[in-house]
Amino acid sequence: MPKIVDPEERRASVAAAVWRVVRRSGLDGVSVRTVAAEAGLSPGSLRHYFATQAEVLAFAMQLVLDRVRARVEAVEPDPDTATAVRRVIEELLPLDAERRAEAEVWLAFTTRAQVDPALRALRDASYDALESVCGQLTDALLPDHPGREAEVERLYALIDGLVLHAVMRPDRATPALMRAVVDRHLTELTR
Amino acid sequence: MPKIVDPEERRASVAAAVWRVVRRSGLDGVSVRTVAAEAGLSPGSLRHYFATQAEVLAFAMQLVLDRVRARVEAVEPDPDTATAVRRVIEELLPLDAERRAEAEVWLAFTTRAQVDPALRALRDASYDALESVCGQLTDALLPDHPGREAEVERLYALIDGLVLHAVMRPDRATPALMRAVVDRHLTELTR
DNA sequence: AGTGATTTGGTACGACTGTGCCAGAAAAAC
DNA sequence: GTTTTTCTGGCACAGTCGTACCAAATCACT
Fold first, then answer.
1. Secondary structure (3-state) at B62
2. Which residue of A has its CA nearest to B153?
3. Contact between the CB of B174 and strand D at under 7 Å
4. Residues A147 and A61: beta-carbon distance below 8 Å
5. Domain co-membership, B78 together with B146
6. Does the nearest atom of strand C lie within 7 Å of A43's Cβ?
């Protein structure tokens, strides 16, 4: 195993350590010491890559949002509009273990953003971006649709609700059920 | 102003203090001292009503869930099915400042339930109850509907997504927009 | 009024927090 | 080979955390 020397990779590995701690103990369990231990670093060394703990949190959250954005952007287009829309939506849903873990971390950060201005800025930006995506999906399915705003919010709320449920009750909100819900919604929209 | 002497009222006022602290500083800001100060008590006195801090949190969360349940149960029935369904849904949504505050607290506790077994039990029970409510609403609108499970989850996810958005972005997810979304959804279901 | 139970305020303890700081190791530059 | 920079580990500090404990105050009841 090659040693990680690139500072940016080191920061990324710290972020991954943050994610693991968040999943195990929640965002409250994230301290300088727990993260350092999880990343295999000493607290003093950790401080060399991140000046403050707030910087650690902001970086770890930003990386989550970046991953979601990258996945959505990487969706290959499809001649069939409904198929293209479905693919984008399914990239936003935690349909496998990795993305469910990602969603858990997202929820933790999103909730803390409620009382942390720095994280709130990140959250609001990603909220706007996702709302825009949902707007594009809606326009693709229903061009010049009256009541567009409500239709966009309906899709966005449905997606976030599914994500929330998959995090809270993965035994209930299974990938199969989430797909069925999306199927039904898209079928109704294109009818 | 009469003095509060009833122990149960005292506990409720402590829970209210917890809610205020949660809204101001998040669930992390809830400590024995901050809650005691917010409730106008000394830490030692607080411990006389709650043996542990975990008990304080469980009680405060339970009271939130009780309020939601009481509101849903208090919905007066209506001969028109669609109207009755809409009324129940609108009781679940944070359409005014008070219920939005309630939703903020709910989100904080729900997120912590992810890593706190005691709170998780409360959350899971209320999740099941709300899922059951959504099932009844769905059955009322669409009796003997094929794919009932997906339809129920679609409604439940939509509601929770709207709640989540109202908490995160009250400027975007306004009461008017939420009503419009629900309107559109119900119109589509009954079509 | 007196007695026993309840309620209150406050202190103390060990554990944990973020951050500041520094000496030594490792690496890089010359 | 020497110097300079980067990196690492660890200690110290002030502060907060939950909880245990206790004496004083207040209350209820005879």
1. helix
2. A181
3. no
4. no
5. yes
6. yes
In this complex, the answer to whether residue B26 has its CB under 7 A from any atom of chain D, a nucleic strand, is: no
State how many domains chain B has. 2
Residues lower than pLDDT 50 in chain A: 1-4
Residues of chain B found within 8 Å of residue A29, distances taken between Cβ atoms:
115
Give the Å distances, CA to CA, from B135 to A52, B16, B80. Answer: 48, 31, 18
Q: Residue A108: enclosing H or E segment and its boundaries?
A: helix A97-112
- Taking alpha carbons only, the member of B30, B12, B8, B33 closest to residue B21 is B30
> CA-to-C1' distance for B168 and C26, Å?
47
* pLDDT tens profile B11-34: 999 999 999 999 999 999 999 999
Q: Which domain holds residue A185?
A: 60-189
Distance CA A9, CA A1 (A): 14
Give the count of beta carbons closer than 10 Å to the beta carbon of residue B24: 11
B87 in the same domain as B26: no
- pLDDT computed for residue B2 by the predictor: 35
